[in-house]
UniProtKB/TrEMBL annotation:
Residues 1-17 form the signal peptide. One of its GO terms (biological process) is glycolipid biosynthetic process. It comes from the Eukaryota. This is monogalactosyldiacylglycerol synthase. Its EC number is 2.4.1.46. PANTHER family: MONOGALACTOSYLDIACYLGLYCEROL SYNTHASE, MONOGALACTOSYLDIACYLGLYCEROL SYNTHASE 1, CHLOROPLASTIC. The lineage of its organism: Eukaryota, Sar, Stramenopiles, Ochrophyta, Bolidophyceae. Residues 279-438 form the Glycosyl transferase family 28 C-terminal domain. Keywords: Glycosyltransferase, Signal, Transferase.
Amino acid sequence: MHAFLLLLLLLSPLTNSFILPPPLQTFTPLFSKKIQLLISDTGGGHRASAISISTQIKNLDPTVECDIVDIYTTYCKVWPFSSYPELYKLMVTLFDGVMWKLFYEGGDTDPGLLFNQFLTETFCYNEFKTCLLRPGLNLDPSLKDGLEKYSIPKNGKPADMYVSVHPLTQSLPLKILGEEKRNVPFWTVCTDLGSASQSWFDYRCDGIVVPSEVLREKAVRTCRKFMMRDSLMMTGTPKQYETSNVEVIGLPIREGFEPSKSKSEYKSDLNLDPSKPNILIVGGGDGMGGIVSTANACISTLSDLSSVTVICGSNIAAKTELSTTHKTNPNVLITGYTPNMPNYMNSADLMVTKAGPGSIAEASVCGLPIIMYSFLPGQEEGNVALVEEEGWGKFVKDPLEIGRLAKLWLEDEEKLEEKKEKAKKGGRPVAARDIAKRLLEELENCE
């Protein structure tokens, strides 16, 4: 009998599947390294930039795990740290941004920085430590079902590298990592554009990525100042900051904004008249910005001359009001939030927008002149100055004046083309990929 079974095993490869038990499956880690990206969801730009960087890292090296975490809302239990996104939205809308201006400018002073560091360390130290030392899952999400088939390690390892993509995720994490003797790279990717708080720039970072020369100069000044102060206090001897640690690479935006076909084709794809210019009016993605009055003024002034496309973001009330008011106008297109911003921007000849760093960076890649109608007091004033100095945009607050200026620009095709070329000159369409490459180089060098 035993000889008969042995003969069957030798003669039929199919027999194995019926007689032998299934082989023991051992879990094999998918990721050899882990990068933790620290953010807070105050506005949409920090997470968007972190996702852009993470996507490019995965494209370049699929063996590196990217862990994006809102360190405040995920870990901190004490107010106001646990409610930063809600407080941010309240302050930027309250009293036309005056509350935000006071908070921002006060926090950007040396005493303000020290006070914030004291509060964060007092109320968030253990929570930050838990986040920074948390292990990666090291597992493909597609394997979540049927995990009982695998032998998964009980203890993963903390990150091999940390990247801050927010101005308030530098100081305390660096302190904790130093005390834990975790000698791993810590980099900052600044997502402001023309002006930025000092809190972005900590001399203890191994590297700082900025999007503009203006911010490179500020980063060097800030790091030099605080390094000299701290070294004098600790050793009595001033130390000089290594300026090469600050690199101008660009603002990380997602792929797709660089034009891949003609403007007429983009217009046709959106059912816009290819023979007419198109003005694109964009409200804040989170619903902020006085888009209704601006859109009404532009439509009144321009809808006979051009198409007018209005993107209201998550401002449902604005979308409803504008759609009702202009539903019979064939030259007007109103929409809410869309994931298809590259196509809308590449269909436009001119954009009216808030002076947010992401919108400006995306417009530059598209070669799209802009009229800025709103900015966050204190934080985004430098963005306005940067665009105006480069000659491809202007800040105008009054809705009627915006309409008149837009009409003037669209009627002068030669000057509009000059502005488009100036916009393209500063565009960095592959900044996210370049940043990802730089981070991976640093990760490899630290082995």
